[in-house]
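Researcher: Batch entry, complex prediction.
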Amino acid sequence: MHIPDGMLSAGVCAAGYGLTLLATGYSIKKINQSREPARDIPKASLLTAAFFVASLVHIPVPPASVHPLLNGLLGAILGYYAFPAILVALFLQAVMFGHGGITTLGINAVIMGFPAMVCSIIYRRFKNSEQSSISHSVLSFVTGSMGTALSVILFVLILINFIPANINAEAEKIAIYTGAAAHIPLVIIEGILTAFVLNYIRKVKPELLDTNF
Amino acid sequence: MSEQETVLRISNLNFSYTHSGMILDNISLNIARGEKIGVLGPNGTGKTSLFLLITGVEKPSSGEIYLYNKKITPGKFHPELGMVFQDSDDQVFNFSVFEDVAFGPRNIGFTGEELASRVNHALGHLGISHLKERPPHQLSGGEKRLVAIAGGILAMQSRLAIYDEPTSNLDMKFRRKLINFIKTSNQEAALIASHDLEFILETCNRVIILDEGKIAADGKPQDIMGNWDLMKKHSLEVPHSLWNK
Amino acid sequence: MEISAKADSKSNTIFHQWEAESKLISFILLMFSFAMIRNIELVIIMILVSAVMFFVSGISYSCLLNRWKTPAVLVLLMGLMVLFFSEGQILITAGSLTITREGLLGMIILISRVMSILTLIVILFETTPFLDIITAMHNLGLPKILADMTLFTVRYIFTLNWQLKQMKKAIILRGFIGNKISSWKEYAILIGGILVRSFEQSDRVYKALAIRGYSFEQIRSAPAGWDSRDKTMCYSFAVLALLISSIQVYLNIPGV
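Model: Structure tokens for the complex:
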């Protein structure tokens, strides 16, 4: 779900970089206010690498399989490091596999990163250590599926609206609906996966969720 | 031993993590120049914690550590103290072998020619100059261990070298290479934790047993490791080469 | 997936010799000017420029084709949408589908733009060591947090990927098949497992770094000097990028 180079006009790409600059600046400011950036940077980086690797896993949706986005989960775990982590991961995906692009790096970071930031706020706002396993699962499901849903909406809207050509309005509307509908299964899978993963971590390594990134 | 110069002095060291019980219980230890000390003991008895306290990465609950007459302040950078970690992947983090070995000296303040010469010297000493441009993730376990030693001890010219399970996951060739290196190394003293007792026997001239956070024995390797009762008491075994002695 | 500390040493073209900082600026300027292109006349120039650069760089066809494959499905889908649903002068009508002149041109422009920019990216990253690119980006103002995170992340992607594969092999040995919806839980545990392992390892990595004096304020290296050839190359690329974008802006003016 990344936009390749050349799909969008230079203006939209520049706007994407502008928004990315703002989000990164905000995140870095918050990180520098934290206790120990020197301690947290290696931690956030290894988790970023783990997310990168985890997103390469094929999740079966018979008869096919999908790669998870995991941006909701990433937001929940990485907090203020979520946006920089996504920016780094997208850059590496573009360089290593050619997923996404360099001119479109900013806009792709917006598509993946803004929802992650929203998920981070929501998960942290409603999570507490006393809550029951069921309410934590529901919160995790919402976090995971919302991350993906918001990304899908941004992706489809940006792609269809800003692709530089004079497509007629009717076709545009149909394309948006089809594009969004095709991703509904992914939204559900992400929710379920995120709930499983966060419950697992809560059981085996609760410190990971309590780390104040 | 008292006439010899003391390299490291540990007095009344206590340590515990907030979420668990006592890890180290009132440890006192003097390390003299020229000593290579084997640290034995079951898993989870605080060997790694002791090492991290000595290097100043962890903060003790109480007690003090002096390197010569300089106090080790937790959280400060002490290049005189070098450590090789059990898992080299924890340690060899950089993008190329050269950059990784250069990391410590660069933080000390070396640049340019001086930096390059330190790195090249460290790599040359271990016979791994040919790995200089390689990314660490492509190296074998043995090669990574040598890079860790080059960067963790040699390039920083540490005075005290600390090895945490240095032979774990090494094949015979690299194990032998490591034995020869430690025997001839020119750091002023060394601390080596290992379950490889034959290795300790070959490389060390003093041994301590650490059990349940306390120093349970301290002496010459043959005396301690050849003592059946003592070794059994601390869940250890007398190495084969001492069976007939 | 492979990233190396040094660029491929077999070839030594003008791109390989070019210093990373000015090269990065030049390529980004050119990429953005390509992204602006909306007219078929400029498409021809764009294809010519990227083709010449590709031949000079000495990169293999297979390498380029591999990169072109990745976005192919999405680009083709979007290309077809532009082809069939653009308004304008009708060329062909087949049933309910019509192809307009604008649609046809739009598709050609879109696809060639994607391919040309990708070609530039392949040339940039195949002829420059990755470490040099990150250092250059840092010298050009990339915050240290991002530079450090990028290098740490790349380093541990390989280790963690290997660990994840081992974990998967271990559960396959115990009968995991993993092609059913019911195996989502096991996949979640694999993902959770690799996150927990990376978190535990990160604590040891931090300690190993601290022993060797890692501090956040440390400066990586001095900015590289540009020699006269780097400058000439950079200026030529800038002029070319400026030329392409000005022509495009001129062509956008109504009535031209």
